[in-house]
Amino acid sequence: MPDRGLHSPGMRDFGPEEMRRFRGIERRFLDAVEGAGYLEIRTPTIEPLHLFTAAGTLSPQALERVYSFLDWDGWSGERVVLRPDATVAAARWYADAVRAGGASTARVAYVAPVYRFAVDGDREVWQCGVELFGSATAEGDAELLTLASTFLRGLGVSDFTVDLAHAGLVRAAFAAAGLPAAQQVEAYDLMLEGDSGVTERLAQAHPDQAASLRLLAGVDGASAGYIQNLRAAMLATVPAAAGPLDDLARAAAALDGAGVSYRVLAATARNFEYYSGVTFRFRQGAGTEARTLLGGGRYDGLTQTLGGAAAPACGWGADLLRLAKVAS
Asked: How far is CA 245 from CA 4, 172, 228, 278, 307, in A?
C-alpha cells in the first residue's frame, strides 16, 4: 500500500517549488483577465447547502460528492457545505451585490479551492475562472471564448481545440419528443451522468423524433457548415432548436475569428444542471489522452434560481494546477 503521508486522503501539501509554480500561473491568470476588465472577488469556503440543492443547480451525481455538515448553532443550525462549485458561489455573490445596489453588469474573476469527494485523486481542487453577469448572449459568449483562447496562448499553450455544445438543444429535442417536464429533467440527468444510451431509448420510443434525437448523441462536426446541416435536419420536427442553433453559429464564428479549431457537439454532458445555453471545453490532445484545460458556458437562470434578480450570465473555470503542468 503506497505511503500517503499524514494528511487526509485527497488533500495535498504544496512545497516551495509547487507554490512557485502555483503563484506564477495565478499571477498570469489574474493579469490576463484584469486586462480584459475582470476584477477579483473571493467567496467563503462554507456556503449554505440550499444554494446547491436548488432546482437546476447541481446534478444528483454532483450532489452526492459534496461535503455537507451542520453549522452548529444550538438547535437552529443550518446545513452547509464546503464550496463544491465556484460558479454558484459567484452567482450568489452577484445576487447579493445587486440586492445591495450594485451594478447589473459585472465582470469578476476568482482563484479558489472547491471540494468534492473522489475515491481517487484530489478532493480539494484549486480553480481559477471568470464570470460575466448581465451581458447579452451573443456578445458574452464570444467575449469569454476569445478571452479563454488568449489566456491559454499567453501560457504558451497552442495545441488546443474546443468542444462546443448547447444545453438548450437537448431540452428542445426532449420537449419535442413529448416528454413531460419531470421526464425531461430525468433524461437530462441521465445524460449528465454519462448514460449515452438515453437518446437511443428515447428515439425508439418516439420514432417521429428519432432522427433529431440520434443527432444529439452520435454526430458531430468541425465547421459552421455542420450547424447549417443540423438546422436543416432538426427544425422541421424541433422548431425550438432555432435559437440554440443560432447561439452555436455565433460561438463558432467567434472561434473562427480567433483562429481556434473546434468540434460542434449536438448535446452536452456536464455535471452541472445550471447551464442553459452554449457550453464549451478547451481540450488538449486526442482520444483517451485528451484532457480538459478549461470549460464553461451560459447559465442565464442561475441567479434567479438562487433568489436574486434574473440576469444573463456565462463563465469558465480551469484547474489551476493542471494549467501549471502544461504552461511554458
From this structure: 49, 11, 8, 9, 29
User: Per the structure block, which three cell numbers stand in for 132?
Assistant: 460575466
Provide CATH code, domain 17-157+309-328. 3.30.930.10
Q: What per-residue confidence (pLDDT) applies to 216?
A: 66
The single residue listed with the C-alpha cell 503542468 is: 325
- Whether 298 and 140 have beta carbons less than 8 Å apart is answered as yes
Count how many Cα atoms sit within 13 Å of the Cα of residue 194 in the half-sphere of its side chain.
2
Residue by residue, DSSP assigns 54-121 as STTSB-HHHHTT--EEEE-BTBT-EEEEE---HHHHHHHHHHHHHHTT--S-EEEEEEEEEE---SSS
Q: Where are the domains of the chain?
A: 17-157+309-328, 160-284
Scanning the structure block, which residue is given the C-alpha cell 420510443? Answer: 205
Which triple of cell numbers denotes residue 34? 484584469
- At 200-243, the pLDDT tens digits run 777 777 777 676 666 666 556 777 777 888 888 778 878 888 99
Residue 115: closest CA among 56, 62, 57:
62
CB 275 within 8 A of CB 298: yes
8 Å CB contact between 313 and 96? no
pTM for the model stands at 0.87
CATH H-level superfamily of 160-284: Bira Bifunctional Protein; Domain 2 (3.30.930.10)
- Cell (9 digits) for 26: 495565478
66 Cβ contact partners less than 8 Å away, ≥ 6 residues apart: 49, 52, 58, 81, 82, 84, 115, 116, 117
Q: First-to-last CA distance in the chain?
A: 35
